[in-house]
Protein: Phosphate regulon transcriptional regulatory protein PhoB (SphR)
Amino acid sequence: MESIAVSENQGTILIVEDDPRIQKVLYRLFHDQGYQTEIAPDGQAGVESFQSCSPVAVVLDLILPRLSGLEVCKHIKRVSPETPVLMLSAVSEVVDKVLLLELGAEDYVTKPFSPRELLARVQASIRRRRKPEPTLTYKFGDCEIDFLKMTARKDGGKITLTAHEFKLLRFFTENPERVLSRDELLNVVWGYNSYPTTRTVDNQILKLRQKLESDPANPRHLQTIYGAGYKFAP
Structure:
């Protein structure tokens, strides 16, 4: 591992990448923006570095020695769900986007990539993380959600939500009674400007209804607005 510090500290970016050429490109990219940079050359080193450097974001290669990028992502999101993770992968290595999102990755970029685009995506993820959190707990119907502790209860009993389900539900609760299109949900919640299928949104909301609605077949809170999208009714 290699740790490099700069005078203008915008926080630390952890780069988990085994290609020395890409390491150098990413170091220069983030160094010029005032970030500290921690470089880990394999998956196991990435896990160890994450525990020690508390990064503001992680740029993570998909295919790594010792421990895969998917396993590293799962570890990071289990320990710190709020830390943005951006995955890197060669075109031939691209896995199902749904799997990456379910693991909690905010975004991914295929190699070869534009350094400016990568920087913009990482900084956007950091800004979303640093955005003031106006609501820590939220109650609707017989549900109580604590977004800070990432806990949820229904009828007083504990229910389990994934990190991405919390993220989607948070966006709904911040936009009550507003019709949200599938494209907006994909762009804001998933972090993509485009996506091959909007069924991803439908499937995620179906899962939330099964966990939160008293009658999932006739939802009261997560409503479908046919031809437009979805609306959250407290």
